[in-house]
Amino acid sequence: LVYIPTEDEKVNREGIDFHNLTEEQLRRIFFVNDFSGSTCYFRPNRIAKAIIEKEVDLSLNVKKNKLTGSFDIKTASFNYEQIKNSCIKLKVNRLGEISKAL
User: Fold this and answer.
1) Beta pairing class for 2-3 and 29-36
2) What is the pTM for the complete model shown?
3) Ramachandran class of 80: left when φ > 0, alpha when ψ lies in -120 to 50, beta otherwise
4) Where are the alpha helices (DSSP H) in the chain?
5) What domain count does the chain have?
6) What domain range includes position 7?
7) 35-48 per-position pLDDT tens digit
8) What are phi and psi of 53, to 5 degrees?
9) Which residue from 27, 57, 90, 95 lies 20 to 30 Å from 20 (Cα-Cα)?
């Protein structure tokens, strides 16, 4: 699991309380899906398994007037930023308690 911090949390990473995450913070938790060369793909924590193959992070390209993305359940970006460049690795114990990995 990885957590994607907000801009404020990037400045003060020690201020994140992983024992008491808000609903908005829980939406920023992702599973590492797979690795492909230098790219790492992630899946939102709230998606257990895709019912239908569908892109998680689609965006509208206004110039081309069409949707862009990899059209898959995995993604390498969140809010137009590479996840692997800003994520915080998490660990979960056998009781489901989340903490920052060392």
Assistant:
1) antiparallel
2) 0.71
3) left
4) 7-11, 23-26, 83-86
5) 1
6) 2-100
7) 777 778 788 887 77
8) -65, 120
9) 57
